[in-house]
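Might I ask for a little of your time on a matter of protein folding? Here, with my thanks, is the record as I have it:
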Amino acid sequence: MALAAGAVVAVLFTHDIRTRARLAKVGMVGAGTQFLATWFIALAQGLPDAGTTAVSSGSILANGLVVGLLISGLLPFVEGRFKVLTGIRLLEMADLNQAIFKRFALSAPGSYNHSLTVGTLAESAAEFISADGLLARVGALFHDIGKINKPQSLVENL
């Protein structure tokens, strides 16, 4: 019962995770919920053995914290294996310090600035209609990346 309570609360907090630290915090929230649920269940049952309840709830708390940290570290492998695109991965893809974006900015500056502008507009528009703004921004950032190959053929890059 306590495990189910922790899992439900953790799932409710998993929307819009954009950092690995937030993912670890969700693990802590789930662990804290399991900890409290263990104590409430023990109290409802008349607290048969406080020592056993303390050990049990402490191990549940530690387990939840470890799971949160493990998920943070293993997430890139899970994303790759199951072809899942998380908010964290999208943020990594939108990092303008990547070599591809540096090359884009140097070889096709007009197209690069256009992509940045379109990304900002797409994100705002997507959020306005309750769509995934981050996904829209990443798509917009990459939509003209092929112009790196022949930037001189476009007037915006001259």
